[in-house]
Amino acid sequence: MPLDPAPRTSPTAVPTPRALLTVSGGDRPGVTAKLFAALAAAGGERPPVEVVDVEQVVVHGQLVLGVVVGALPAEGGPVGEGRFLAALERLAVEVSEATGVRVQVESADDTGLDAAPEGRPHHVILLGRPVPPEAVAGAASAIAGIGGNIEAIRRLSDYPVTSFELTVSGAEATALRTALASVATTTGADIAVEQVGLARRSKRLIVLDVDSTLVRGEVIDELAARAGRAAEVARITAAAMNGELDFAQSLRARVAALAGLPVEVLDEVRAALVLTPGARTLIRTLKRLGFRCGIVSGGFTQITDPLAEELGLDFAAANTLEVADGRLTGGLVGEIVDRAGKARALVRFADEYGIPLDQTVAVGDGANDLDMLNAAGLGIAFNAKPYVREQAHTALNQPYLDAVLQVLGFTRDEVLDAV
């Protein structure tokens, strides 16, 4: 029969005093070293201590350092709380005089130190240009409203968007996303939620949609304009992106409207493509970080293959326009890359590179991207319609594609180091 684990303390054990030391003031070299050197110098009236918890942040040159220490038994036996706190108060005066910072001492218990919070913690990322105070207030209130607790906040970037990462414990993922979605809607800030853990930083492959994601606008609309069928094709495109029409059916209808266009028009449209701001930074950064990067598009290989080569992408999948006698026939060649086809392409490329799906990222804006977004470990709806945003893992409504890096947890400094 297995033995029960021994209790940590006996019912008659004297509680071990604990104290919280809060250091604040202008940051300068040696403050942390001075504090811990003083804590280590036990002897005389100063009882020995153990370090229980530490957290330090520097905000615009101002240091905030919190240290929880517990009293260790001295030669004369257990140390009472009064004596323990008095010794630390004297230590605080010494450190303050030597460094110029403030050191406050208060009694602390072990609440929150020995008991793990319910559920896995999550990262909540707030992004905006700017981030309004009401977004932070709303997020904090929503988190508290479902029993969550903000354990830490750090800034990820200040350009091209401002972004902050909150570490939240005690909240269930679905409830957290639901509570924060209304805050994002009312304040205009983007709020993403990801579970804390190694999986967040283990992403190794990213798939990008092309039209209105990697590039501005819709290629097929540009081709339709040259065929004099712009209004007709735009109506079909909008219905398809909103999920009102089957993509494969709508694609065939739009391509049929291009019949007779000279093939040279494809070169003209390709040359006029405008990348979404931040696209090159996103791809360059992720490739330097070891990601496999590629595109999966409901558009056309005559456009996407040269684009993939220009950007140094690892893979590409799209539809192929049929050409005969130098003109578009209005038909397609081969299997259609539709909503289900995009998801299949993601799985295929992940398999080719030996990367599990939970280590993949997909970014897109349309209803035909949803299967791909949900198949990936992280699916990001980028400037998408409400129908798509509501079903993706998270959404970005910033005009900069490299804001994806902050959703992945990379700071601005890390991005600059990688490029």
Automatic annotation (TrEMBL):
Cofactor(s) listed: Mg(2+)
Record-listed E.C. numbers: 3.1.3.3
GO biological process: L-serine biosynthetic process
Active site: D209, D211
Protein name (Swiss-Prot/TrEMBL): phosphoserine phosphatase
Domain Phosphoserine phosphatase ACT: 122-194
GO molecular function: L-phosphoserine phosphatase activity; magnesium ion binding
PANTHER family for the chain: PHOSPHOSERINE PHOSPHATASE
Main enzyme class: hydrolase
Record-linked SUPFAM superfamilies: HAD-like
Region (Disordered) residue spans: 1-24
InterPro entries reported in the protein's UniProt record: HAD-like_SerB (IPR050582), HAD-like_sf (IPR036412), HAD_sf (IPR023214), PSP (IPR004469), PSP_ACT (IPR049148)
Catalytic activity: O-phospho-D-serine + H2O = D-serine + phosphate; O-phospho-L-serine + H2O = L-serine + phosphate
Family per record: Belongs to the HAD-like hydrolase superfamily. SerB family.
UniProt keyword list: Amino-acid biosynthesis, Hydrolase, Magnesium, Metal-binding, Serine biosynthesis
Gene3D superfamilies to which the protein is assigned, alphabetical: 3.30.70.260, HAD superfamily/HAD-like
GO CC aspect terms: cytoplasm
Pathway connected to this protein: Amino-acid biosynthesis; L-serine biosynthesis; L-serine from 3-phospho-D-glycerate: step 3/3
Keyword Cytoplasm applies: no
